[in-house]
Amino acid sequence: MSYVAETLSNLIHQTAFFNLTVGNYLMIAVACFFLYLAIKKEYEPLLLLPIAFGMLLVNIYPDIIASPEQTSNGVGGLLYYFYQLDEWSILPSLIFLGVGAMTDFGPLIANPISFLLGAAAQFGIYIAYFMAIFMGFNDKAAAAISIIGGADGPTSIFLAGKLGQTGLMGPIAVAAYSYMALVPIIQPPIMKALTTKKERQIKMENLRPVSKLEKILFPIIVTIIVCMVLPTTAPLVGMLMLGNLFRESGVVRQLQETASNALMYIVVILLGTSVGATTSAEAFLNVSTLKIVALGLIAFACGTAAGVLLGKLLCFITKGKINPLIGSAGVSAVPMAARVSQKVGAEEDPTNFLLMHAMGPNVAGVIGTAVAAGTFMAIFGI
Question: 53, 276 in Cβ contact below 8 A?
Answer without folding.
Answer: yes
